[in-house]
Amino acid sequence: MKLWEKGYDVLGEIHRFTAGRDRVLDEKLIPFDCRASIAHANMLHKIELLTGDERDTLVSGLEKIIDLHSKGEFVITPEEEDGHTAIERWLTDQYGDVGKKIHTARSRNDQVLVAMRLYEKEQLAQIRAGILDYRAALGALIETSGEIPMPGYTHMRKAMPSSIAMWLGSFAEAADDNIAGIESTLKLVDQSPLGTAAGFGVPVFDIDRDMTARELGFKRVTKNPMYAQLSRGKFEAAILHACSQVLFDLNRLASDLLLFTMDEFRFLMIDQTLCTGSSIMPQKKNADVLELIRASYHMVVGEELQAKSVMANLMSGYHRDGQFTKEPVMNGLERTRACLSVMAAVLDGLTVNEEACRAAVTEEVLATAEAYQLVKEGMPFRDAYRRIAARFSD
After folding, report:
1. β-bridge mates for residue 153, sequence order
2. How many Cβ atoms are within 10 Å of 1's Cβ, its own excluded?
3. Contacts of 159 (CB under 8 A, 6+ apart)
């Protein structure tokens, strides 16, 4: 059974191509789809399109699907195409005509949108929590070792004095801005598309969209039904951009840590439980977890570009192209959440080598301070600059 079935066969190759990876991706959306369907069933009962018994039957069935899914016992078959079809088919197989009523006053378009919005809200909330954990790990290292001096670098060369607190504190402050970015994106996403159907609303029935929005925990509804479809790709790109900002900072920190944990620097020591090895070189303990975090920024930027570009140049209304925005946003959200968790673990497994840090604060790092001391004594800055520069001219 397909939700759009009309009594004719479609070539198997066409079916497989158009369904794509939806069946795999929708495994993650089943609980969210069922939650939205429960709210929808309650609303249909309110406007008297379902009897009390019918509503109770559907809600009980949807809760059963959530339970089966949590146990790995609810499977979307290739023939079912997607999660929406699998849910409706299960309800119909179990309850007959009552199951056929769940799709009243909605489309697969708003059904997938509301499931995705619920999924996105949960993922963004988890990312916000992940940033807080990551920031706490930064703070713990600053608390124990923040006063230790180290060189600051410009152009990959020693520049001026810095410290563990100044260095890691810059990433902590960036994390605060990233929390603000995630919260702003959450505010954007926090609107219910349920009831917009295929992008033109629901004729005949006076549905209560505010009711379903409240039940699902949305702050508001998407008022214009066509905007629900116009938002596809737009919201996903916004989410992925917020994720990329988080990963941009993790990328830079990963690069620093890879450099500063090298034997040639040894500013920090990384616990061997965070490292892997080489298949040929017995001595190797590689911090390749940091290399993968570093690369993840570029992966999510690519996902953002895909979400933006796949929906560009389309006239308003629904287009199947939007199917290709689902996987990028899922990949980006889950990769960001994982990177935050792993980076927090890495920070917990770092030890600052105070001796190496102090030894690296060599004479040239103090050059600017020396020039300013001469200025304080009355010498023009440019003369002081040149006097100190002459000492390092070789």
Report:
1. 158
2. 12
3. 151, 152, 153, 365
Residue 291 has pLDDT above 60, yes or no: yes
Does residue 231 contact residue 222 with C-beta atoms inside 8 Å? yes
Single-letter residue type at 342: V
43/195 Cα distance (integer angstroms): 10
**Owner of token pair 């609107």:** 191
Is the pLDDT at 129 greater than 70, yes or no?
Answer: yes
Nearest to 169 by CA among 249, 246, 248, 242: 249
What is the 8-class DSSP label of residue 150? E
Summarised one tens digit per residue, pLDDT across range 307-326 is 999 999 999 998 988 888 99
The per-residue pLDDT for 50 is 98
Q: Please give the helix or strand (H or E) that residue 151 lies within, else none.
A: strand 149-154
Distance CA 231, CA 210 (A): 19
Tokens of 188: 């954007």
User: What is the token pair recorded at 235?
Assistant: 């919201």
170 Cβ contact partners less than 8 Å away, ≥ 6 residues apart: none
State pTM to two decimals: 0.93
The string of pLDDT tens digits covering residues 331-353 is: 999 999 999 999 999 999 999 99
Residues annotated as catalytic are 155, 278
Residue with tokens 């946003």: 329
* Domains defined along the chain, listed by start: 12-100 (1.10.275.10), 108-206+222-360 (1.20.200.10), 362-394 (no CATH)
Taking the C-alpha atoms of residue 178 and residue 4, their distance in angstroms, rounded to an integer, is 42
Q: Residue 96, exposed/middle/buried by CB under 10 A (0-12, 13-18, 19+)?
A: exposed
Q: Does the pLDDT value for residue 6 go beyond 60?
A: no
